[in-house]
Each structure stands twice: as structure tokens, then as C-alpha cells.
Amino acid sequence: MGEIDRALEGLARRIGAGATVTVLTGAGVSAASGVPTFRGADGLWRQHRAEDLATPDAFARNPQLVWAWYAWRRERIAACQPNRTHQVLAAWKARDHTLSVVTQNVDGLHERAGLADLVRLHGSIWHLRCWASCPTSPVRWRDDRVPLPEIPPHCPHCHGLARPDVVWFGEPLDPAVLDAASRAAASDIFVSAGTSSLVYPAASFLPVARARGAYTVEVNIDDTPASDTVDLVLRERAEVVFDRLEQLLGAR
Ligand code: OAD
To answer: Would you list the domain boundaries of the chain?
Structure first.
């Protein structure tokens, strides 16, 4: 039996003993589905400067360019399917409501696997909102048409520009979402999966959980700034780890 299998058996025993669990996911959990990560070898931030595409200033300067990039990502994601990590987390949540899932991903793959109840820290690429926050439009609306009929899309209420309902660099997170994530971080076990642990405040939940006494776990194929701080490092692909964990939990 490998080292990872032994570690996973220990983790499954802790979970089986009734511990509450929070899983924080990042782009790495969607990598097996074919969604590009941000900082990997072919990562989005290797090819583009974030400040040209993912800031309010960039949108104000060139909404056409920013929307062309989001439209490309929407098309790419629409062609992807949820993988084993998404499926396992959805199945786990369906039988155990004490599991909390907090994601930094905007791709909607957790939801497509059937996980409805999750905290989306960075919004959703499948939702739009009015750039001018006009008083007659809803806060956000869903539009999963691929391709979008017009680039840039417009607010159906004031006919001004619409923007993707995602968090851009320099923008604060929705306080209600932050609150929900902080509550989720008060679990007995905190698992950080497929994230580089570089973007805040998302990266702060693991140290907060640890300070509150949680047993902390990192699932990542590479080292991150969090690796040295956690109780258990699982240096393996998320889809392999969650598949194995589900076999162990399901076998109980
Ligand atoms: P990153 O691209 O920064 O990090 C992805 C992480 O996943 C890396 O640490 C990889 O080693 C790891 N990884 C890749 N494939 C994996 C696999 N199969 N299993 C496990 N780990 C794997 O993505 P995030 O940490 O999610 O923000 O990035 C955080 C935020 O930065 C994003 O939400 C986005 C970006 O700018 C916004 O859009 C606001």
C-alpha cells in the first residue's frame, strides 16, 4: 500500500468519526476536465496579463477585448465535462450536509456535477450583471448561451454594457459570500484542493481554519505556500485523491 493510500485511510477514518469537512477548490480541480488553470505551465496568466483582462480598468478601457476573452473561456468550458472531483464532492454533499464546498472557480463544473449548495467566492462566468448597476436590473442574471449573440452583451434593462459576474483584481468579495466562507472554515477538517494558495482572501481560509484547531490537508500536484503549514500534504491529482477517498468513505 502506498503512502498516499495510508494517508487517505487515516483521513477517511477522521471523516468517518463524524468530523465536519470543508473543501476549498481552485482551478486545479477542473484541470482534468480540460479547463486551463491560471498559473500552470499552460496557465491563463502565462499568456495574458491579468491587468489587461481581469480588472475594472481593463473593462472600462476595452470591453470588447475583455468580453472576447470571457466568450472564449465560456466556449472552452462549455465543451468540458465535470470530472471525478466534481462528481465525488456532489455525491458526498448529497448524503452528508455537513460537508461544505467553497470554490474559487467560476466555471460552474461543481454545479453541473449536481452540487447546488456551494460558496462561489469569485462569482460565475455563466452570470452577467449590469456594468452601471442600473436600478432596474436584477443584481445578476444567468445567460449560458454559447456563443453569446452579441459581444459585448448589454443589460436588458438599461441597454448599457453588461459585464461578467466574476470578481476582478482590485474588487472586494461580496460580504455575504465572505461571511458564508468564513462560517464554512469553522470545520474540523479543512481541505485545500487544486489551488496555488496565492490569491487572497481565498488563501486566508486555511490558516484561519488551522488557527481554530482544524486538521488541515492540501491536495495538489505541486508545492504551494500552504504546503509547509498543513497537517497532511497529498501530492497527487485531485481527481485521483477524491476518487480514492470516495471508495474509502463509501465502503464504510
Ligand atoms: P492557479 O492556476 O493559481 O493554481 C492551480 C493549482 O492547481 C496549482 O497549484 C497546480 O499545481 C494545481 N493543480 C493543477 N492540476 C491539478 C490536479 N489535477 N490536481 C490537483 N492540483 C492541481 O488557480 P487558483 O489557485 O484557483 O481569480 O487561482 C486562484 C485565483 O486566481 C482564481 O480564482 C482566479 C485567478 O486569478 C479570479 O478570477 C478572481
So the answer is: 1-35+82-122+173-252, 36-79+127-166
Under CATH, to which class is 1-35+82-122+173-252 assigned?
A: alpha beta
pLDDT given at position 2: 87
Contacts of 37 (CB under 8 A, 6+ apart): 27, 28, 30, 31, 43, 44
Substitution site in 69, 103, 195, 244 for ligand 1 pocket (most atoms within 8 Å of beta carbon): 195
Q: pTM score, two decimals?
A: 0.97
Is the pLDDT reported for residue 127 higher than 70? yes
Query: 104 in ligand 1 pocket by Cβ < 6 Å?
Result: yes
Distance in Å, CA 194 to ligand 1 centroid: 6
Of all protein residues, the one whose alpha carbon is nearest to atom 18 of ligand 1 is 237
- Spatial CB neighbours of 129, under 8 Å, sequence gap ≥ 6: 137, 139, 140, 141, 162, 163, 165
Q: What is the pLDDT of residue 153?
A: 98
Superfamily in which the 36-79+127-166 domain is placed by CATH = SIR2/SIRT2 'Small Domain' (3.30.1600.10)
The whole-angstrom separation of Cα 81 and Cα 55 is 28
Residue to substitute in 173, 221, 227, 243 for testing ligand 1 pocket (most ligand atoms within 8 angstroms of CB)? 221
Residue % of the chain over a pLDDT of 90: 92
Contacts of range 60-69, beta carbons closer than 8 Å, 24 or more positions apart? 63/131, 63/152, 63/161, 63/163, 64/151, 64/152, 66/152, 67/148, 67/151, 67/152, 67/153, 67/164, 68/151
